[in-house]
Amino acid sequence: MNRTTASLGFWASLVAFACATAYSAAQIISPPLLPVLYFPWNEILIIAPSFVLPLAYIIALNCVDAYAPEERKIWTHMALSFGLLYAAFVCFTYIIQLATVIPFTLKGMGDQVNLFRLTTSDGHWIQAVDGLGYAFMSVSALFAALAFPKEERWLRRSLFAHGLLAPFIILPLWIPLMIVVGMLWFITGPTSLIFLARFFKTSSSASYTGSQ
């Protein structure tokens, strides 16, 4: 892997890790879990990093594709395909929250945007779009795991673990109790991304040493 690809992959993975961690922390300390953050800051601190996360994730996946040997590119192409679906679905959802729902609510016109609000039952359809997006992210991670050699066992395991959550992210739409399993995302998401950043960091150092 050339140094530019490794460096870009490292920084994209690190930004994605930071966003996933920030989102997880904000979600945990917001109702209905721990009522520490309240509107509008709970939604802003949940949604803003969630909007940046897919953008960084797609850049990281492109770097994985550039790294993968030809015989494994089928897996990186699948990872990228599902990753792009994830990015499209959640960016659509979150720009509506940031540009419409939150501002309207702050102006006292929240009733006009309840249909689009992620945090109300009236917005169930948009919760479905958001949930499907995150399920696609997990599927993407599952395929990405197959792009790495067995020697990268911790990276592969973390991506596989994240991938296996896919059904438990979408099932809460019909079986609410499944969210308990889906909440493992708070662990598998940041963990898989920090291992990916570590992989690129190691590759970048190796590329630099090899060029000396």
Give structural attributes.
8 helices, 212 residues, single chain, elongated
What would you note in describing this structure?
This protein is mainly alpha-helical. 73% of the residues lie in helices and 0% in strands. It has one domain.
List the helices and strands and how they pair.
Layout: H1 3-28, H2 41-67, H3 73-106, H4 124-145, H5 153-163, H6 166-170, H7 179-182, H8 185-210
Give the count of helical stretches: 8
Q: Give a count of the beta strands, DSSP E runs of length 2 or more.
A: 0
Low-confidence stretches are 208-212
Radius of gyration: 18 Å
For the sheet with most strands, the description reads: none
Secondary-structure content class: mainly alpha
What would the principal axes of the Cα set say about the shape? elongated
End-to-end span in angstroms?
Answer: 15 Å
Brief sketch in words of this structure:
The protein has 8 helices and no strands. The protein is mainly α. Helix 1 runs antiparallel to helix 2 (41-67) and helix 3 packs antiparallel against helix 4.
